[in-house]
Design a protein that fits this description.
Radius of gyration: 20 Å
Number of strands: 13
Largest sheet: 7 strands, mixed
Distance between the termini: 36 Å
Number of domains: 1
Low-confidence stretches: 1-26
Order of helices and strands: HEEEEEEHEEEEEEE
Number of helices: 2
Shape: globular
Strand content: 35-45%
Structural class: mainly beta
């Protein structure tokens, strides 16, 4: 909804509520977007999940995943803006190998990098999905498992077609 001022005859309470909503809605910067490119075609993805720094306020968008044709043997180039590049991020992906089996993998954790090129092990492998995951605040210890967990603060999803 566009941000605009109100006019007319509203009571003081209504005006106060509208002012708070306008400041909250207009003051929030738009979440960053991620660019996926393969074989000369490009799509730009909004986040499917995006949490504020408090990790309490999160927004989910089931319509955000984007689709791009990525034929076997074609590298996928991923570009992220500075706001993502300056934090730890990673690419989590699934591909179908030459035997037809799905394989889940992840890139190394990337910091201070605005791009990553995903190339699968063999030219016959077919990328199914790729997800950019931006890590949130510092890692935390899970008291139940004793494992260190790295919370994901935002994610951008690509679904592929051949």
């Amino acid at each position: 909804m566009p941000c605009r001022s109100t006019s007319g005859r509203a009571g003081p309470f209504v005006l106060a509520v509208l002012a708070v909503l306008l400041v909250a809605g207009c003051g929030r910067a738009a979440p960053p977007q991620v660019t996926f490119t393969a074989g000369g075609a490009t799509v730009v993805a909004a986040p499917t999940q995006y949490c504020d720094d408090d990790f309490v306020t999160c927004r989910n968008d089931a319509t955000a995943p984007v689709d791009l044709a990525v034929p076997p043997g074609t590298p996928l180039v991923i570009d992220v803006p500075e706001s993502i590049a300056e934090t730890p991020w990673q690419v989590v992906f699934t591909y179908r190998d030459s035997a037809g089996e799905p394989v889940d993998q992840r890139s190394p954790v990337l910091v201070d990098r605005s791009g990553y090129t995903l190339e699968l092990p063999t030219p016959q492998d077919r990328l199914l999905t790729a997800q950019v995951q931006q890590y949130g605040p510092p890692p935390v210890m899970n008291p139940e498992t004793g494992n260190v967990e790295y919370p994901i603060g935002a994610s951008w999803v690509l679904l592929t077609s051949a």
